[in-house]
Amino acid sequence: MVLYRAAAASGGLSRKPDEITHAYVAGFLHQAVEAGISLMAVRDGQVLGEIHGWPMPQSQFAHVFGDITIAVRPEAQGQGVGRALFQGLIADITTMLPQIRRIELGCRESNARAIALYESLGFVVEGRLKQRVFDEGGFYEDDLAMALLVR
Ligand SMILES: CC(C)(COP(=O)(O)OP(=O)(O)OC[C@H]1O[C@@H](n2cnc3c(N)ncnc32)[C@H](O)[C@@H]1OP(=O)(O)O)[C@@H](O)C(=O)NCCC(=O)NCCS
Which of 10, 35, 57, 104 is most enclosed, with most CB atoms within 10 A? Predict the structure, then answer.
């Protein structure tokens, strides 16, 4: 919760800090442990970052890995933690979940750092969901649908 609240305060996540509840964190960790993957970056006992996601439950979409969220503590951003977490996730998906062909995520258009990271990993923008995100500043921005084909 400390990590996600701090990351939410720095922007980029789909939740504001007061929407990072115990139920939210327990829920995604439970779902990732049950059916997907959660990876944490830890230094000196402190969680610096986390990434998680899981395959879609319906049989028609069982080859799609989604619901991905990644967060790095603001003071640890820009040091390669996010890249290491995402590379670890892709490596684990390809070895542990051989049915997965497609990894997908959403990212608001203003999150240049995240988009640069995803594109450098091979993700491409497949679509633009216009005015999907409402920002506290009082304006709407587009959400980008991005995907990486792994097989
Ligand atoms: C997006 C986020 C996960 C990236 O993690 P990070 O540890 O800061 O990123 P890294 O240090 O691994 O950098 C990865 C890439 O991001 C890009 N990047 C890093 N800093 C950047 C900056 N200031 N401006 C633009 N791009 C930048 C670069 O492409 C970098 O690649 P490089 O390793 O070749 O330099 C992290 O900033 C974060 O948690 N942000 C808040 C939550 C969030 O936005 N989550 C994603 C929601 S879609």
Answer: 104
DSSP-derived secondary structure for 43-63:
ETTEEEEEEEEEE-SSGGGTT
CATH number at residue 49: 3.40.630.30
Pocket test for ligand 1, best of 20, 47, 83, 111 (most atoms within 8 A of CB): 83
Give the count of domains, the chain: 1
Q: Over the stretch 66-112, which tens digit does the pLDDT of each residue have? A: 999 999 999 999 999 999 999 999 999 999 999 999 999 999 999 99
Rounded to whole angstroms, the Cα distance separating 35 from 4 reads: 21
For 37-72, how does the pLDDT look when each residue is reduced to its tens digit (9 = 90+)? 999 999 999 999 999 999 999 999 999 999 999 999
Cα of 58 to ligand 1 centre, how many Å?
Answer: 32
* Residue 132 alpha carbon to ligand 1 centre in Å: 22
